Amino acid sequence: MPDSIYTPRQQRVLLVVCLLVLAGMVLFGLGSYITGFLGAGILYVVLRPWFTALVHRRRWNRQVVTVGLLVFALVVIILPFTALSLMLFNRIRYYATNTDISQIMAVLHVIERKIGVTFTAEQNVQSLVRQGVGWLSQRLPSLASSLLHFTVVIGLMLFTLYFMYVQEEAFLRGLRRYLPFRPDTLHELGDSLKNNVNANVLGQALISLVQAVLTGLTLWVFQVPDALFWGMVAFFMAFIPVLGTPLVWGPAAILKLTQDHTGQGVGILLIGVIVIMNIDNLLRIVLARRIGDIHPLITLAGVILGVDIFGILGLVVGPLLLSYFIVLMRVFERENRLHASPKKPE
């Protein structure tokens, strides 16, 4: 055989380049479906304790347990969350197309008269509403326009999750073999993944549900129209640290005050500040000890990053990516310090 025109070093470099190019093409082709793989990874971490308890400890049939977990994930987690997202988007679109700007302007003018400062113009309000609706329409699912895409993503998610459980040993062995990290780094990344998913899926979902119920009940008691819808909005807003549910009950209280319903407005503010916000802090302290703790700044920045890239799934994926970045920075710092330290003379 004729000799190669490349040196061994050049062959290795070209091999790496070819792998990177092909990987880039694969990621580009699967770009719109990448959320399916990310969702499978998240569900794998969430449901793995049950899988471990039933398969590895009680020796139940692996395929039966896996199918049961997939059905549970579909019926209890995926479909309700998707239905809630679709209902929210459709109602937001309804309000955007049927709300009279003059009504919003009337409320804003009352606020201006009370504080003595003019800060609104009708054109600016109209532009802001259109921009907000456009931004949300790109990040919340629309069943009428993307039913096929949604079906493919869910199918890909469940299909991937099935093989992650059925071939778990081979899957974990492949991660340890092909990821370019040391065993201690892989262990650190695994702990970070578990901690983040627990905090932002299990913990945050529970906190958001409690706050949404309290917000909806508060608005219903004080006769705010469409309290159920605003309770759903509060569920998603609660994923955002610090801001969260005040973005829902705060404007409701202001609306009541501008309508001269002072008692109702003050009541919403008092319950929001004293009960809803404090129950958030209390639950975070309790859950942080049990299922993981993520700094609120990481969660806030991660949510902003994730929603812009991954849509509604970015509420979880965004903080995860940011946490991984911080973990890898720590690993780099540790490895760099280890290699930079001078060797002791023998």
UniProtKB/TrEMBL annotation:
Q: Which family does it belong to?
A: Belongs to the autoinducer-2 exporter (AI-2E) (TC 2.A.86) family.
**Which domain of life, per UniProt?**
Bacteria
- Please give the name of this protein: Predicted PurR-regulated permease PerM
The UniProt entry lists membrane topology as:
Multi-pass membrane protein
Cellular compartment(s): Membrane
In terms of Pfam families, this protein maps to: AI-2E_transport
Transmembrane stretches in the record are 12-30, 67-89, 147-166, 201-222, 228-254, 266-286, 298-327
Instruction: Please give the organism.
Output: Hymenobacter psychrotolerans DSM 18569
Stretch forming the signal peptide: none
Q: Name one GO cellular component term.
A: membrane
- InterPro entries for this protein: AI-2E-like (IPR002549)
Q: Which residues form a coiled coil?
A: none
Keyword entries, A-Z = Membrane, Transmembrane, Transmembrane helix
